[in-house]
Amino acid sequence: MEGIVMFESRRDGIGRSMPDAVKLAHTIQRTLLFVAPPGSISECVTEAVEREFTGISVEQINDVESIFAELEHPASLILIDTSFLPEIETRSREIARHHPAAVVALIFDDSWHSPDVLHRILFSKTVRGVLPMNLRLDIWLSVVRLMLRGGEYFPPWVLQVCSEGSPMSVHRSTVVGLDNEPSSTHHAGPASLGYLTERELQILKLVSRGFQNKVIAGKLNLSEHTVKVHLHHIIKKLGTHNRTSAAAIFLRANAALTHAAPLGVG
């Protein structure tokens, strides 16, 4: 898990002075918890997170059982190595009870493409995102920021692999879903698609295929601004956090109906 491309921080000095350490101890409010095999999370990753996010303390544990140990500060984000996926699925309710405010996401290398496991991730009741560990540091930290705010993130290639064999095809695209603030209405899920208009469903289907706003606007003969407005309404109606999460809801609904009738939007 040391594949993150690091850039030098332009901060003065190395380490922290004693007064700074005391001040930091008083500002810590939440914990980012790594659950990964020993040595898989480098110190530079831990330091980058603590420099970037005020009030966040990073801790690493090496097994799922340790998730239930008491933390000094509540966990906001739990990043779990994929090798622990079977175990966290069987203990999902325990994790939710012990860390009710935490987002749980998986960490792994972008080259890991097992379709069966990716489907389990996308449909998991516990996992709310996937964080590749070989992203450039600034992008990686942007995804972490989204998750700390309660958002979900699935790389476009995850949606692509999970959509294979369905009537839709998600194309590889740039990193999406990092520029939207979390929003909340009702619980996000496939049933929420009933709140969308026909036009919103058309746009969401194209989003799930990996198309960006400019391309969607061209395909539907709309202005790019109009597409952005529709996407804002879609995200709000679904009670989700960003376009990637909205696309995941659409794909789940379509997969659930594959043996009946796929979502009929043109």
Automatic annotation (TrEMBL):
Q: Which UniProt keywords apply?
A: DNA-binding, Transcription, Transcription regulation
Q: A Gene Ontology molecular-function term?
A: DNA binding
Q: Which Gene3D superfamilies match?
A: 3.40.50.2300
Determine if Transcription regulation is one of this entry's keywords: yes
- Stretches assigned to the HTH luxR-type domain: 189-254
Q: Which GO BP annotation is one of this protein's?
A: regulation of DNA-templated transcription
Membrane spanning stretches: none
Source taxon at top rank? Bacteria
Give the matching CDD domains.
LuxR_C_like
- The name of this protein is Response regulator receiver protein
